[in-house]
Amino acid sequence: MTETIDLQDQIAGLDPKHGIHVDGRGIGATQTFAVQDPATLDVIAEVADAGPAEATAAVDAAARALPAWAAETPRARAEVLRRAFDALVAETDLLAALIVAENGKSQADARAEVAYAAEFFRWYSEEAVRSEGDYAVAPASGTRTLVTHRPVGVAALVTPWNFPAAMATRKIAPALAAGCTVVLKPAAETPLTAIAITRILKDAGVPDGVVNLVPTTDAPGVVTTWLEDARVRKVSFTGSTGVGRALLHQAADRVLNASMELGGDAAFVVTADADVEAAVAGAMIAKFRGGGQACTAANRFYVHADVAEEFVQLFGAAVEALQVGPGADEKSQIGPLISARAVDGVRALVDEAVAAGATVAHQGGTPDEGWFFPPTVLTDVAPDSPILGQEIFGPVAPIVVWDDEEQMLHQVNDTEFGLASYVYAGRLQDALKIAERIDAGMVGINRGIVSDPAAPFGGFKQSGLGREGARDGIREFQETQYYSVDWS
Ligand code: NAD
């Protein structure tokens, strides 16, 4: 009870009715929208609902702030980013509580997300100062070529609800390191975390106008306003492949620089000589982090026939033992899904798989109230079952048994997605031989997690364009310019 009162006080302290953040100030709108806790279905806040006018005001502020921020020395920008890291870490309790309340994930998952989210500021504070270019002698003429990288300009950032902190910081930190200013639209389900981050960044010394926030229920209205504004020179989107594709069409009209982090359909491969206990431990992380609502979530399991029985038994027992409940309860390991619609979608996929011959081999329980779905293991899943080709985005693990490596690899790659995959094998070189034939941007080798701020996160095929994290993440917010120097 005390915790609930504290959280309500903290939410009130964020003043979400003035949650639009432009030029360093919180502003309101004529309307507000409700944010619901997916575990209790309580309305936990009313947030200012921005429209195209506020979207344009945010670009005005970002465009005004751009010249001074771009002209800062890399060291000065790095120091602001480093202070931002410290400030975000210091506010771990607040940010984790907000993530639990509006997204529903467990406290452990929420705290892990805050640590991951903050780390982008530390990584890019270190990377911001490595702004080297190239100097070359042109082969025929002997003229000199100088290559440098400039901030692309005002960047429009659009983020999903499943990692309300990390998807924002994974874009803001490299953009700021590159010298860009930003306008950010969070998902309407999870605006509170973004509001808190914006305030924390301001207090940490990010200059007014450099980071602007526009919560809204009119995503197309706000984002279209940005994509049509000539001052916006970049769009960086994380979300579903369908929306990403539509934004790419819009971006094409202005030949707008676009980065896309889209959906996934990760395969989790277990070979005959894998350490089965380790594979099960990895599978629990790869599948159930955030209740299965991660773009990198293991979506389908390909387990070698020699170890299938043991794997299903151990995995099934671990799944049945999972504590499902509100994230606010410390004992909960898995929270609710984000919406009633999400629950219906996952249930439809499971029903369809069962109708096509799959067996519900293991299933956990759920509380009666809230948007919960029980953690579920499906066996006897036909290799062409639709559940293997679409993002489940819920705590369901379909298992396919294989004994022919060529056939298994064909099935693994038979998807429009190519974000992440996982391979568990006894010998590293065997795991790598399989990984090198998987068409995915990231492969966990004997690990159930691939996210790392220092590594290039992104996908092949319809999972996206571009990379976030690592040095690549800064390049997404830079233009390359070269000077051809007369050498007569
Ligand atoms: P979504 O595509 O519905 O929404 C993402 C964002 O786009 C939200 O801010 C939303 O308000 C906005 N949006 C929705 N429709 C829009 C429109 N017509 N015009 C402009 N903006 C619009 O995705 P979601 O349900 O919030 O997130 C889940 C999806 O995100 C999954 O597919 C998941 O795989 C993907 N995801 C990908 C990554 C990655 O790094 N590749 C990371 C996290 C999530």
TrEMBL record:
Which keywords does this Swiss-Prot/TrEMBL entry list? Oxidoreductase
Key word Iron-sulfur present in the record?
no
Q: Which residues form the Aldehyde dehydrogenase domain?
A: 30-481
Domain of life, per UniProt, equals Bacteria
Q: Which GO terms describe its biological process?
A: gamma-aminobutyric acid catabolic process
The record's annotation in InterPro entries points to: Ald_DH/histidinol_DH, Ald_DH_C, Ald_DH_N, Aldehyde_DH_dom, Aldehyde_DH_Superfamily
Q: Give the Gene Ontology MF terms in alphabetical order.
A: succinate-semialdehyde dehydrogenase (NAD+) activity
| UniProt-listed Pfam families | Aldedh
Say which family it is in.
Answer: Belongs to the aldehyde dehydrogenase family.
Task: Write the protein's name.
Answer: NAD-dependent succinate-semialdehyde dehydrogenase
Name the source organism.
Nocardioides immobilis
